[in-house]
Amino acid sequence: MSAIPGPRRVGNAEVIHHEGYDESIVSPFVPAIRVVSNARLVFISGVTGAPVYHDHPHQPEVFDSMPTDAAGQVRNAFDHLELALAAAGCERHDVVNMIRFFTDIEADQDIVNKHQGEWFGGHIPTSTTLEISRLATDPRLRFEFHVVAAAPA
Asked: What EC number(s) would the UniProt record show (predicted)?
């Protein structure tokens, strides 16, 4: 077990570790992040592999062009996240929290973790992962991500 490092500044936040930290463990989350500047919190609605803008009530044919595989959906979801972050004046390292909803964790978590790790390029937000029976938008969706970022003031 490694010594507990002091807080590490990432954008508008500090990454916090506590007793039990082991830098050799590969993990897609950190235990805590503290917003340290007068940053503004940005709450991003759930991103999926489906088109961001779509009618309500949902029209199933609108979603026929989205990928049905996990790799295609995760690329779309992170592309949508990139657009929302940029529109809010944020960058990838400004993400402080992700809540990840999966319809099948066993089938998709490793694919998502790999893409997420590459997309963040070394930045690791706090995270919670849940398995649910279905997502509201379309039954073909495999996961959805709710994100909070700390935008520069």
From this structure: 3.5.99.10
